[in-house]
Amino acid sequence: MITLSIIKADVGGFVGHSSSHQRILEIARQELKKCNKLTDFYVTHCGDDLELIMTHNHGIENEIVHKIAWDIFVKCTEEAKRLKLYGAGQDLLTDTFSGNVKGMGPGVAEMSFEERKSEPILIFMADKTEPGAWNLPLFKIFCDPFSTAGLIIDPKLHSGFSIEVHDVVEHKKINFKMPEEMYDILALIGQPARYVIKSVIRNSDKEIAAVASTQRLSLIAGKYVGKDDPVVAIRSQSGFPAVGEILEPFSFPHLVAGWMRGSHHGPLMPVSFKDANPSRFDGPPRVICAGFQLCNGKLSEPRDMFNDPSFDMAREKANRISDFMRMHGPFQPHLVGVDELEYTTLPDVLKKIKHRFEDL
Ligand code: F6R
Ligand code: MG
Ligand code: MG
């Protein structure tokens, strides 16, 4: 069994919240290189989020692995403070590690599996958005035959997948068997601020197919500290959706919550690694995809999956949608709904005028 752990945090932005400083990435790489408890690792960033991609044989939710990540975030935060990077240590909500980084600020997605004869795996990383942003693409990848042809054509996919959904407000989970319960799952995951897809397994043999980070920083901290900027890992080919079927839903830059001050809807723009630096109005929200061909637990160098002209139209569309949404200024639906705004600094502004209201 090999375990893939992706643990990520915003430990400081360069410049503002737009990107990451090379020095921070270097420190993370140096620390992971020194550590002899992992099989392999890859360090990257999406915007201001530091992404630690690790393989090992300790299983999921393992204290050793979580401590490695936590210590790196602490060390990188020290350097971020020294360099006066913006929002240094913003995602570390506590300063004492207690066995698991869950609930402490960082985002986590982990899965254990037996490495196949060939194990292509895609890791998506987003900035300026929330975990529910994966709901629409994950639904299309694993449940929509108009997107994933294999659901119809390939007998290995034909029996469908089961999806675990988390209610991040009530802290509950529920499992849906697809395609039978398609209408039930859609009744929830169309509300991505509350219902978030956590993982996907294949019905025929219960093999794990995908796992996402579902941490919602504002719900943990009780206030807005920055967007969650989620990750999701998806296994591909030979009975799982093909690489191209996994990428296909991202050709539609759907509207997600996040962007400026975590309070605006905007399109999720698929970009190559070099373009993962959201700047216009602190956005628009971005997604990168690193493709790996696992080899005895080794990751090697990733392929930059959105570095492909076939996603140019999606990017252009995202820019057009950005213009259109921006024209709304402070009005909904560019501005997110009232529930979401509760966790921003807007309530403080409203407090000031509250006493001036008179009964009608
Ligand atoms: C979005 C984000 C930024 C900040 C904005 C204001 O996730 O982090 O859009 O909300 O730049 O930041 P502060 O309040 O730190 O000046
Ligand atoms: Mg930030
Ligand atoms: Mg971020």
Beta-strand percent range: 25-35%
Q: Provide a count of the helices.
A: 11
Supply the number of structural domains: 2
The helix-strand sequence is: EHEEHEEHHHEEHEEHEHEEEEEHHH
Helical percentage: 25-40%
Largest sheet: 9 strands, mixed
Bound compounds, each kind once, are: fructose -6-phosphate, magnesium ion
SS content category: alpha+beta
Give the tally of β-strands. Answer: 15
Topology:
Layout (H helix, E strand, L loop, with lengths): L1 E8 L12 H13 L5 E7 L2 E8 L6 H20 L24 E7 L5 E9 L7 H9 L6 H4 L1 H4 L2 E7 L4 E6 L4 H8 L5 E8 L5 E5 L4 H5 L9 E5 L7 H5 L7 E4 L5 E4 L1 E2 L15 E9 L8 E2 L7 H15 L11 H4 L4 H9 L6
Bound molecules: fructose -6-phosphate and magnesium ion (2 copies).
One magnesium ion (MG) binds next to loops.
Task: Summarize the structure in short.
By secondary structure, this protein is an alpha+beta fold.
Task: Give a description of the structure.
- By secondary structure, the chain is an alpha+beta fold.
- The protein folds into two domains: 1-112, Alpha-Beta Plaits; 114-339, no CATH class.
- The chain is built from eleven helices and 15 strands.
- Strand 8 and strand 9 (208-212) form a beta hairpin.
- The longest helix is centred in the first third of the chain and has 20 residues, at 63-82.
- It is globular, with a radius of gyration of 20 Å.
- The model has no long low-confidence stretch (mean pLDDT 96).
- The structure holds fructose -6-phosphate and magnesium ion (MG) (2 copies).
